[in-house]
Design brief:
Layout: H1 4-17, H2 21-28, H3 44-48, H4 53-77, H5 85-100, H6 113-123, H7 125-142, H8 145-162, H9 172-188, H10 190-198, H11 212-218
Helix pairs in contact: 1-4, 1-5, 2-4, 4-5, 4-6, 5-6, 5-9, 6-7, 6-9, 7-8, 8-9
C-alpha cells in the first residue's frame, strides 16, 4: 500500500500544476487570453503585457504556489506515509510538468519559471531565495526576462550541490529533479534563445503588440 502513496502524490501534483493560472486569472479579471497576444505564453510575464500589473502579480504568485505546495506538503506530512526525498523530487517535477503540459488546457502550457521557483522554495527557502536573486540581478543589468530565467535555472542545481553539508544535505533524486527542470526550462525557451542570439528579444518594460480585444476597444 505504501507504494501507492508516492504515485497518488505525484498525480495530484501534476493535476495541481495543470491549473494554468495565467488563463484562469485573466478570465476572472475580464482580460484577453494571454495565449492570443505577445509571446502567446500563458505566464506572468506575458500577462503583464495586457497592461494589468495586478493580474501579472496574482498569476506569478499562484504559479509559484502550485510548485511550492505539493513539495511542502510532502516534506511536512509525508514521512508517516513513506513519502521521502524521492517523492519530493517526483512531486516537484510533476507540478512543473503539469505547468508545461496541462491536462486541463489541451497540454498547451507555459515555460515554467514561476512554478520551478516555487518547487525550489519548497525544497529550501534559501535555495529559492538564491535562485530568485540570480534572476533579479540578471534581469536588472540586462533587461531580458528570458536570459534571467535561463541563467537562474542553470545556477539552481549548482547552488543545491555547492552548499551540500553546509545549509542542507543534497539528495541525488532531488538534484536530478532540479537538473531536469533546468533542462526542460531551457528547451521551452529555445525560441527566446534564438531571438537573444539574433538581438531581437524584447527587453523588460518594452511594449509589444496589444491584445486584439484591447485594440478593438481602442477603436470605438
Amino acid at each position: 500500500m505504501t507504494a501507492v502513496y508516492p504515485l497518488l502524490a505525484t498525480v495530484a501534483a501534476y493535476l495541481l500544476g495543470s491549473l494554468s493560472f495565467a488563463v484562469i486569472v485573466t478570465r476572472v479579471m475580464g482580460l484577453s487570453d494571454p495565449r492570443t497576444y505577445g509571446s502567446k505564453n500563458p505566464g506572468a510575464t506575458n500577462v503583464l503585457r495586457s497592461g494589468s500589473k495586478a493580474a501579472a502579480i496574482v498569476t506569478l504568485l499562484l504559479d509559484a504556489m502550485k510548485g511550492w505546495l505539493p513539495v511542502a506538503l510532502v516534506m511536512w506530512f509525508g514521512h508517516p506515509y513513506g513519502l521521502e526525498d524521492g517523492t519530493v523530487a517526483l512531486v516537484g517535477l510533476a507540478a512543473f510538468l503539469g505547468h508545461l503540459w496541462p491536462v486541463f488546457f489541451r497540454f498547451e502550457g507555459g515555460k515554467g519559471v514561476a512554478t520551478a521557483l516555487g518547487v525550489l522554495v519548497g525544497i529550501s527557502g534559501w535555495l529559492g531565495l538564491a535562485t530568485a536573486a540570480t534572476w533579479l540581478i540578471i534581469a536588472f543589468f540586462f533587461r531580458y526576462s528570458s536570459l534571467a530565467s535561463l541563467v537562474a535555472a542553470a545556477f539552481a542545481p549548482v547552488y543545491y550541490l555547492l552548499v551540500d553539508g553546509v545549509v542542507w544535505y543534497a539528495e541525488g533524486t532531488i538534484a536530478a529533479s532540479i537538473v531536469a527542470m533546468a533542462l526542460l526550462l531551457a528547451w521551452r525557451h529555445r525560441e527566446n534563445i534564438q531571438r537573444l542570439m539574433a538581438g531581437k528579444e524584447s527587453r523588460l518594460g518594452s511594449k509589444k503588440a496589444k491584445p486584439a480585444a484591447d485594440e478593438a476597444k481602442a477603436k470605438h
